[in-house]
Design a protein that fits this description.
The structure is a homodimer of 161-residue chains.
Chain A (H helix, E strand, L loop, with lengths): L5 H15 L8 H8 L3 H13 L3 E4 L5 E4 L8 H9 L6 H4 L13 H16 L3 H5 L29
Antiparallel strand pairs in A: 1-2
Helix pairs in contact in A: 1-2, 1-3, 1-4, 2-3
The structure holds a DNA duplex (30 and 30 nucleotides).
DNA sequence: TTTTACAGGACCGGCTCGGTCCCCTAAAGT
DNA sequence: ACTTTAGGGGACCGAGCCGGTCCTGTAAAA
């Protein structure tokens, strides 16, 4: 359903949790698992990946744990997603060009690319810092959207398939 | 990778194909399969679903086939996606509230909802008619984006995981 | 030198996705 | 009427990925 994987979601939750905690001391996987009520092995795996990718700094041994490697204000959601689950693209051809038989002369390819850019852009403009602001910021920003509004979308169905 | 399913992608391609062809006569699944180079059974299944959902009009029997049930200019991509793969939501809790243990007191829930709305909005503003315009329209529209730009996203990695 | 905690794997069951097949019914043509 | 065309609605199925577990290192602190 145009979902990102749960793992990625968890990863962001973990980063948010770290951003909220005392930054001067590392936090263990166990701790974060408890905070977020996620299974420890999963948390562990995620933290390792995030550390490997440079988003977290890891500290081994007793009194070890993980801490944010950068300012939450400079870390975009898009970045995290890209790291955790690869390039952001709704369509196959967006992520891995050259696999689709009809890529040449596909009538809808170009517009999809643009849609992808829009989504990528939207995600790139949200920082970890913003995610953890409790007050919902700037609701009016939603009013401004790219693409013209043809008739304000009569499209809010439920389930399907 | 924040993908929609191939089926959905195909569905949109099929709609686009129909929008491009002569609207005064129905087109068969076989025809459309040939046009799009997609396997016939898949095309068939998709067309059935789209017809059932009211996006296409179906005509049985000899000289039968499918035709668009509405003006391409009034059909949003978001609508098609919603029909073909359910509610648009990046996170589980967006589509099916009440399943996540940490939904209460989840620190990042609200912002995600807003991100979902942005994406939903972006998709809602693209019509089938726009998808098939060959000339790429309005590149400058991308400049205007919701959410502030913290540092214009240094995040275009490749692969991962 | 013992304990704590990360590093890096392998591994695995289940579910969904992409794809196929089959039998039925409706509409045209003859 | 009967045959042909083409959609309607299923069931079905294999492969792949996803979410989750586990185990064996190794580094750092006490």
């Amino acid at each position: 359903m145009i979902r990102m994987s749960k793992l990625t979601d968890y990863g962001i939750v973990l980063l948010a949790q770290l951003a909220v905690r005392d930054a001067s001391v590392p936090h263990t996987a166990r701790e974060l698992a408890a905070d977020t009520r996620l299974p420890l092995p999963v948390v562990s795996k995620l933290l390792k990946a995030l550390a490997r990718e440079g988003l977290l700094a890891s500290h081994r041994g007793a009194k070890g744990g993980y801490s944010l490697a950068r300012d939450p204000a400079t870390l975009s959601v898009a970045h995290v997603i890209a790291i955790l689950e690869g390039p952001i693209a709704l369509t196959e051809c967006g992520a891995h060009p050259g696999l689709c038989v009809q890529e040449r002369d596909c009538r809808v390819r170009a517009p999809w690319q643009r849609i992808n850019e829009v989504i990528q852009g939207a995600l790139a403009r949200v920082t970890l810092a913003e995610l953890i602001e409790t007050a919902t910021p700037r609701v009016d920003a939603l009013a401004t959207l790219p693409f013209p509004a043809p008739e304000a979308a009569p499209c809010a169905p439920e389930r399907a398939r």
